[in-house]
Amino acid sequence: MAERPKLVLAMRPDILDLVLPAPLRARLDALADVHPDLVTDLADPGAARALADARLLLTGWGCPVLDAEALDRMPRLAAAVHAAGSVRHHATPAVWARGIAVSSAADANAAPVVEYTMATIWLASHRALGTAAAYVTGREPVFHLRQGADGATVGVIGASRIGRGVIGRLVGAAAGFQVLLADPYVGAAEADALGATLVGLDDLCRRSDIVTVHAPDLPETRHLLDADRLALLRDGAAVINSARGRLVDTDALARECGTGRIDAYLDVTEPEPLPAGHPLLLLRNVLVTPHIAGCQGSEVQRLGGYAVDEVERWITGQPLRGRVQAADLARIA
Asked: Which residues form the D-isomer specific 2-hydroxyacid dehydrogenase NAD-binding domain (predicted)?
């Protein structure tokens, strides 16, 4: 019988049991020879033997950086499977240079973000924040002046896996949303196949009732929504950001929202968290949540389940569903 591959776990201790609850850990133990101790420091002498023998590394939030020095301690490593979304925080080009297969559970993390975004789109389409603020003061909107979702134009910035998921949900919604897409890597034909109309970013801002951000955090995307583009938004529009805080100019957004002209639904901010007393935390037409759109609580086991499936695929010689290529690093979140 072939020897089972040796596997090391590298992630924050506080998330281990959430990511790999007992049934998933039992599956993993049946697939591989799992080192009993969680590794949080790849330079720890106590982990040297386990790392030297490891063929598989199952990582999660808090995984140490996999640079050349760390990889020198893992000469037999053949695959690094990430039980979370982005691998940008720990995987370096040295991983791919050594021919190590990399996989991410980003697909599993995308579904909750899509659902979260859709929930905020429905709220935004009804101008729920402003209406709720008025209701607190005893003002109830006259029925014929209330706003609904039907026919609203939603501008999606970025055809990422989450952006595409949102577009799919919008296209299938009974509200008849008009969907615009801005993405420099997508052509008109591909956008049309998704069910969206490809437009420039400035045009998207001018035409949208709701703008939702799903682009990666790159040097060229910092403040993608800056003061000039936020000024293009029509009165009553809403901005949704569940991607990265750096994509939106925080000060410019606070100024626009402070006038009451637009609303904002922010699951991410720059900085994160915002300092106490920040205007965006105090405005009634802004909802700020603490980066909770992705897998949370009981949902986190979806990431572990995806990762264990990937481990099984690798061991049995099947293609990795969440494989990340070196070229992807420049464009992923």
From this structure: 142-293
